[in-house]
Amino acid sequence: MKLKYFILPMILALNLSAITLGEVPKNVTIDNDNGGMVADGAAWNSSSIKDKVIVMFYIDPDEKDTNAHFSKALKEKKFDSTKFGSIAIVNLAATWKPNFVIESILKTKQKEFPNTIYVKDKNSVLVNEWNVQNDASNILLFSKNGELLFYKSGAMSEEEIDQTLKLIEKNL
After folding, report:
1. Which domain holds residue 61?
2. How many domains does the chain divide into?
3. Separation between Cα atoms, residue 5 and residue 2, nearest integer Å
């Protein structure tokens, strides 16, 4: 009997933090000891997901190539950067690789792809706050209003890539 009084609140708490299709996720900030933007070290806040259709890659560095085929498809589309943006948040806590090595790579990536916002997440903030998968490649697509349109953890199929590209075009 006591067990159900313990389990029910835990399930409800998990659901409150989980991201839900069609909704704007709870506001999250990644800063200070938790990480921040690669370009200047400033805090990153999820309230910045607005005014453009945004694709977010939330990635364990060990899974960086899992959705390379989706990244390639996005580049080939050449979406208008005034209407479409991308964010790459790297979950540094999910890897055995030293942070200084990954941070060096991220600085190079930021220079190579200046239109993408690169963020370091040193303590799995989005895993804890949004309940996205840890140790994985997560793809999230947001509308101009910040509503979650698509979420996939793991490798995207060709059908999911086509679906996501169509969602982007529809929402631009």
Report:
1. 2-171
2. 1
3. 5
